[in-house]
Amino acid sequence: MPLIRTADAIRSMEIRGAGRIARAAAGALRDHAEATETADRVAFQKEMNRAAALLRSTRPTAVSLPNAIHIVMRGLEDADSAEDARGIIQRNADAFIRSSKEAVAMIATIGANQIRDGDVILTHCNSEAALACIIGAKQQGKEIEVYATEVRPWNQGLLTIEVLNQHEIPTHYIVDSAVRIFMHEIDCVITGADAVCSDGSVINKIGTSQIALAAHEARTRMVVAAETYKFAPRTLAGHTIPIEERPGSEVLSDEAARKLPYVRVRNPVFDVTPAAYIDGIVTETGLIPPSYAPFIIRDHLGWDLPMIADDTT
Ligand code: RI2
Predict the structure, then answer these.
(1) Angle ∠(64,69,73) on CA atoms, nearest 5
(2) Who's near 10: CB < 8 A, 6+ residues apart?
(3) With contact defined as beta carbons under 8 Å apart, do 190 and 144 qualify?
(4) Phi-psi region of 102 (alpha: psi -120 to 50; beta: other; left: phi over 0)
(5) SS3 state at 274
(6) How far is CA 240 from CA 17, 281, 312, in A?
(7) What atom of ligand 1 comes closest to residue 204's alpha carbon?
(8) Of ligand 1's atoms, which has the minimum distance to the CA of residue 19?
(9) 16, 101, 125: residue to mutate for ligand 1 pocket, most atoms within 8 A of CB
(10) Is 197 a catalytic residue?
(11) Domains in the chain, start-ordered, CATH in brackets?
(12) How far, in Å, is the centroid of ligand 1 from the Cα of 204?
């Protein structure tokens, strides 16, 4: 997909989900490198920096996006020629896309092993990584049931129940505010992540932290499924991750809002779940306690990332 089209699709949530956004950005950088015909190395690098900045500006919260861009652009400064630089981007992008898909497959196996036969699971939003764990458990022959939330205002729960239905997994579809009433029936909550901070806190779809609180109160396990490239290196240096707030018109139509001049809609789309409410994070390298997050950053993203890259969160 061309660069500007991809950026628009990410911004408008036509492409959504932290992993899908990351792969789409990597693919767009690769295609843009191919389409940028200059033979001048400096001009090529400048154009690719511009493309990276455009993609980075589309959505502020999911750290998978700047991390993917950083991984794809890595080594560009060592290129001898534009052709060399183009090759680096192509190889990096292809490798990233491949490893991102392999990570989901690994998470499926590791996460499925966290689910027992007979478990009732609750999931929130539409996470490829979380669903992979649930589908993995079903494929292991476990009898499971799922509660899936609606996820206002974008109703990503509809995507989730479609996938669960395709896999013939018995599912209850509930409104977001019904989570606590059903929590006593849930054995394990599994969600995805848009970002994992160095203190082990997890940023995910709005409502996740309320679910985690309800799970904590009911002593229900709370597991997060997150590839290592969703960990946020710059949080090691004290940076916080901006929480995206989208237009109020996604919640209340402009027409309805016009009749209510004293009402202002607030529409934050992510929230922060503190590490204390998370029992484990399933990554492609294994199940880790949230306190292990700095080691994931060191081993998979590098300590140097927060220092050298202004472009990473
Ligand atoms: P995967 C989504 O964000 C949801 O918050 C979901 O839990 C998270 O990305 C991770 O998704 P949005 O793009 O990468 O719907 O696991 O705002 O698919």
Answers:
(1) 150
(2) 16, 21, 24, 25, 55, 58, 59, 65
(3) no
(4) alpha
(5) coil
(6) 20, 20, 12
(7) 5
(8) 14
(9) 125
(10) no
(11) 3-106 (1.20.120.420), 107-310 (3.40.50.10470)
(12) 7
Q: Cα dist. 121→98, 135, 213, 225, 302 in Å?
A: 29, 11, 16, 13, 34
Beta strands in 78-175 (DSSP E): 120-123, 145-149, 171-174
Angular region, 312: left φ>0, alpha ψ -120 to 50, beta rest: beta
For the entire predicted model, the pTM comes to 0.94
Q: Mind listing the pLDDT tens digit for each residue in 122-147?
A: 999 999 999 999 999 999 999 999 99
Q: What is the mean pLDDT of residues 267-274?
A: 98
Tell me how far the alpha carbon of residue 256 is from its chain's centroid.
32
Tokens of residue 26, six digits: 């990597």
Q: Can you point out the beta strands (E) in 182-255?
A: 188-191, 195-196, 202-205, 221-225
Whether 11 and 59 have beta carbons less than 8 Å apart is answered as: yes
Q: Please tell me which residue in 31, 119, 194, 279 is annotated as part of the active site.
A: 194
Question: What's the rounded mean pLDDT across residues 270-294?
Answer: 98
Cα dihedral 150, 155, 156, 160, rounded to 10, equals 50
31, 125, 133, 197: which is the annotated catalytic residue?
Answer: 125
Residues touching ligand 1 (Cβ under 6 Å) are: 16-19, 125, 127-129, 156, 191-194, 204-205, 269
**What pLDDT score does 1 carry?**
83
Which secondary-structure segment (H or E) carries 280?
strand 280-283
Q: Which amino acid is at 8?
A: D
Tokens of 199: 């203190």
Token reading at 249: 């018109």
Q: Residues 125, 205: contact at Cβ < 8 Å?
A: yes
* Buried b / exposed e along 206-242 (16+ C-beta atoms within 10 A): bbbbbbbbbbbeeebbbbbbbbbbbbbbbbbeeeebe
- Residue 155: other Cβ atoms inside 10 A: 12
